[in-house]
Amino acid sequence: MTATSDHDQLYSKHAPRWHQRLGRLGYTRAYDHLMAQLPPLPDQARVLDIGTGSGAFAASFAKQAPANCQLTLADPNPEMRREAAAQSQDWPQTVQITDAKLGDPLGQYDILLCAHVLEHLEIPPALTWLHQSLTPGGTLVLALSRPHWCTALIRWRWGHRAYRPDQARDHLAAAGFRDIQLIPFPSGPPYRTSHGYIARR
Predict the structure, then answer these.
(1) Is the C or the N end of the chain the one with fewer CB within 10 Å?
(2) For 50-104, what is each residue's pLDDT tens digit?
(3) What ranges make up the beta strands (E) of the chain?
(4) Into how many domains does the chain fold?
């Protein structure tokens, strides 16, 4: 369950500008909106952001989360890991940066964050891995591309898939997730190209 080497080279090329570009397009505000819908977190929650990229999704989580959370930011791309390390150095939580990808044996976490990763993978086995990587009752926070003509341009560039919210909900349910919430992003490019989800194991 990995991206191709061509995609890896693309991510390496764009890593230094990735975080700034997400902010300019409104994705960081969209991620803030999604994280604001989370229920109260368990004390000393263990949190994994899988495919963290520059750490933008985890940054929105860190704004909302207690300081005693333990965050692991995982990405197989070294340039993206360097960006995530730079972004996270002033967060109040304990942060670990690790070279890992979705599908690796990483144990179980109370909360999983996963933004725009499943588009590059076969979604049933990826969701099965996410489900198995959560503690019972744990929470998945997901951002996933949805069909739009803008998404078609992104797909041409990055080679990823897109899912209607009802399709994503059905895939989540088939993988065993429950209490699935569909949370649209409020405005801008994220509203057109992406959708947010919160679900429990």
Answers:
(1) N
(2) 999 999 999 999 999 999 999 999 999 999 999 999 999 999 999 999 999 999 9
(3) 46-50, 70-74, 94-98, 109-115, 134-145, 178-183, 194-200
(4) 1
